[in-house]
Amino acid sequence: MAASARRKEAMGGDAFAAALMVAPAALLLGLFFVWPFLRGLWISATRWDGFSAPVFVGFANYARLFGDGLFQGALINNLIFVALILVFKNGFGMGLALLLDRALFLRGPIRAAVFIPVTLSFAATGLLWSWIYNPVFGLLNAALDLAGLAGLKRSWLGDAEIALYAIVAVDIWKWLGFHAVIYLAGLQTIPAELYEAARIDGANAFHRFRHITLPLMMPVVLINVILGLSGAFVRNFDIVQVLTQGGPNHATEVVMTLMVKTAFQDGNMGYASAMGFTLFLIVGLCCVALLALMRRSRVEL
After folding, report:
1. Is the pLDDT of residue 2 over 70?
2. Does the domain formed by 62-300 have CATH 1.10.3720.10?
3. What is the pTM (predicted TM-score) of this model?
4. 217: left (phi over 0), alpha (psi -120 to 50) or beta
């Protein structure tokens, strides 16, 4: 009985010590994540300009989204952004990783150069590409002139039909090295013996990729898809804002830029919060679906 009591006392002391160590992190998490989340959810159910007292309106802000053409257009632009980002970042990222995994001359410096765009700030990236895309003295139009393709010259950020795709290209350029490095790390975990056995059996490069590399890389692919998905939905504000501010005529407007304008230019914090939580719900459901797919597609060596 005495030994049991001492064990219980020791366990109680350990639990108290554990709670004491976790408390600072839990406090910070609650202060900077949980409370702002709950506060934002409350604001999304109000009509509030940021200064006067909030007026509770229930789900009126969310109902308004269904009839808001600007929001629907921004969401469609987001979906186009996401689709192109996922295809090209993952396709080019995998291809680049396969290339960098080979014994290339100056492989180390090449890997570093590929990753350099990731280290640039969004402001620097936007300024650089605004010069490249400039219709008068931009490098892109100048290169088309030199190549004898003057008919392809455009006002890349001023043409409503191509401005969004021009921004997508910038985002791909900036983050391609990041995704390639993740793929490269995944490639280096695949045992070389599997490839050697496949070569002995007569498998060519395509068959080795199809039956060894791709199945074993599926968890890495899904991680990159989730990162690309979340980034394309919620981390595209900076690049769009710097390059076009959502123009011309809302052709490059995404939900994040529209949300900021609604909150700080129109003074409608409640409606902007409803946009944000709707976007959060969409991204959350997509990520949950992809995580479920990741668990089903896991391959054991």
Report:
1. no
2. yes
3. 0.86
4. alpha
